[in-house]
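Task: complex structure prediction.
Instruction: return structure tokens for all chains below.
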Amino acid sequence: MNLFLSVSIFLMLSGCTGTESTSPAKETGQNKSEEAQEINYDKVQEEPEELGQEPLNYETEKERIIEQYEGITPTSWGENVEGVITEIDTNEKIIALTFDACDGTPDSFDEELINFLIEEDIPATIFIAGQWIEAYEEEFMELSDNPLFEMANHGYDHKPLSVNGELAYGIRGTQNVQETFEEIFKNQVLIQEMTGETPKYFRSGTAFYDEVSVEIASELGLKIVNYNALGDAGGTFNKSKIVESLEVAEPGSIYIFHMNQPQGEIARGVKEGVLQLKDQGYEFMQLQEVDELLK
Ligand SMILES: [Zn+2]
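Output:
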């Protein structure tokens, strides 16, 4: 079975449109996890040479995480709890641009923005939610095939990461250890199945966490990366506010923008602000290029 076939079968079996509500999530989530495991098993048996990295074992990891973290009560909740990375530790003119792709509703791909980055040869890290990937498969494959862009995990259902159902901006977080695991790992498996590469970085939907969830992500081999520079404020900034936010860039800034809101002025603001920074001698790096400097 070749990679394309495996991926097609996985997507067919998972049958998610990316716009479904999350109410029956528990049941469908478990079905998906079993399927994901089966496909990984096929890969191990038939074509290990095609995978760049070790296949992920969904069920084994799930059991391990539940056993280790079930029953622990978190004591903090927010964007900057312990263990969350927010900056690059450097005095050099290096910054990281990160772009979130959140929901996969129609018209959620900012092509103008992505084309600008490609034309100007600007590397970036893109945090992609599973629901976006499933709605924009072709675009996702193009992005992941482009070495300018590093694929990072933005959660499968774009939820705040909580082990007890905390709220962020009125959005209910994952409700227990198993859901926290699923939110992280279903998307991790999906991205690995589609690209052959395993993401190194995670940012939750809303960028909120408790410290137990941060530890779970870390136990699964992921670093949680938020930001110290608000680029578009969830897509609410107009062009001039976006340019202003880029004007105050400092060495080591990690910017958060969105690439799923073409209706706004993000592309226009990023173009102007990023070209100004380029003129000032700033260099743009993917997170993996500055991995050892992340703090
Ligand atoms: Zn998001």
